[in-house]
Design brief:
Elements (H helix, E strand, L loop, with lengths): L4 H10 L3 H7 L15 H10 L24
């Protein structure tokens, strides 16, 4: 997945921090599906068969820090 240029422009023009961009805008991602990791490849293949262009953009992990709910890397 590549972020559409309009979001780079918005971030630069508005002097918006990366964390705020990710929190406030979907940055062109559209729809997100959260699935069991064991089903990832099956789902990606099925979406491709249906003409979609899916991307794996993250994962859910155990977090030891209760003050940090989301980590962007």
């Amino acid at each position: 997945w590549e972020r559409p240029e309009i979001f780079h422009w918005l971030q630069n023009t508005g002097n918006i921090e990366e964390s705020e961009m990710l929190k406030t805008f979907n940055c062109g991602i559209g729809m997100i599906l959260v699935v069991n990791p064991k089903e990832t490849n099956n789902l990606l293949n099925k979406l491709k068969e249906l003409g979609e262009e899916p991307s794996l953009i993250g994962k859910i992990i155990h977090n030891e820090n209760p003050e940090t709910l989301v980590v962007y890397k």
